[in-house]
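User: Teach me something about this protein's shape.
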Amino acid sequence: MMEGEFDVAISYFISAIEEKPDYYEAYMELSNTLLYGQRFEELIQVTSDMVEKFPWSSDAYKLRAQGYNAYGEYVLSKKDLQTALKLDPKNHSVHMVMGNTYRLMGEYEKAVEAYTNALKEPSIREQTYILLGEAYELNKDYQMAMQNFEKSLDMNPNSYMANLKIGYINSITGDYDGAIDFIVRPPRFSQVLMYIFKLAPSNW
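Assistant: First, the predicted structure itself:
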């Protein structure tokens, strides 16, 4: 979506809310559009209105937490996510955002726990395996990182990110031939290949 299209969509949802102030779905569409467009200041403003008008909405707190994360306000993000989980413990997408927050805070073991809870939601499982693998990778547990990247790849064998991550783990553990095997050529094959060559020993 281009910037002009974002503006049109945002204006449309704002008009819908002005016409019907309790239009929850319009608030959700507006918030998701702002998130997708990385307009985080506006996102925080809109979701702050949401938690006032719809205090029962777990997603409102989750969306505001994503805005806080963008500004490094991790304590506020964590507080909102804890509230979201109290409102709806089965909202597994909240666990995924909680994992992102812990990862940004450098608390990788807690990130692993949150992402593991998020795996209960099938619709986000492929992405969550990648995030879980990255948390293990940051914690230097490359074996568990590889296992989760492979699970993501099993769900989608054409996944560029899963192939890239497996190639990267192979490269940092010294399996440079294995790294090459898992690099998906388009669109950034040459850049990744050059990175692996830099890591590889001179006699490889």
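Now, about its shape. Residues 184-188, 199-204 have pLDDT under 50 and may be disordered. The two ends are 44 Å apart (CA to CA). If you'd like, I can walk through any region in more detail.
User: That's plenty for now, thanks!
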